[in-house]
Amino acid sequence: MSVIIIMIGISFLVAASFLVAFIWASRTGQFDDDYTPSIRILFDDETKQSTNGNNLSSSERRK
After folding, report:
1. 56 and 47 in contact (C-beta within 8 Å)?
2. What pLDDT score was predicted for residue 19?
3. What angle (nearest 5°) sits at the alpha carbon of residue 12, between those of residues 8 and 17?
4. How far apart are CA 33 and CA 46, in angstroms?
5. What is the pLDDT of residue 46?
6. First vs last C-alpha separation in the chain
């Protein structure tokens, strides 16, 4: 029975260490995404379908 108490205590310590590591990583900016905004310009925008079934973007409609 004492083994269960020891294992529960160890699991709480491990969980607390992961929580501390996550809080430290989020405060120091480890999850900031610096790469995606710089390449977002390279991707095409998705065109939205209009009510009349026409699937042209606004620049194509002006032609």
Report:
1. yes
2. 98
3. 150
4. 22
5. 74
6. 79
Q: Which domain holds residue 3?
A: 1-27
Size (the chain), residues: 63
| DSSP assignment letter at 35 | S
Task: Give the chain's domain count.
Answer: 1
pLDDT in tens, 40-57: 788 877 766 656 656 555
Q: Could you tell me what percentage of the chain is helix, strand and coil, using 3-state DSSP and rounding each to the nearest 5?
A: 60, 0, 40
The structure tokens listed for 3 are 């083994």
Amino acid (1-letter code) at residue 22: F
Could you tell me if residue 14 is inside a domain? yes
Tens digit of each residue's pLDDT (9 = 90 or more) over 10-51: 999 999 999 999 999 999 988 887 778 778 788 877 766 656
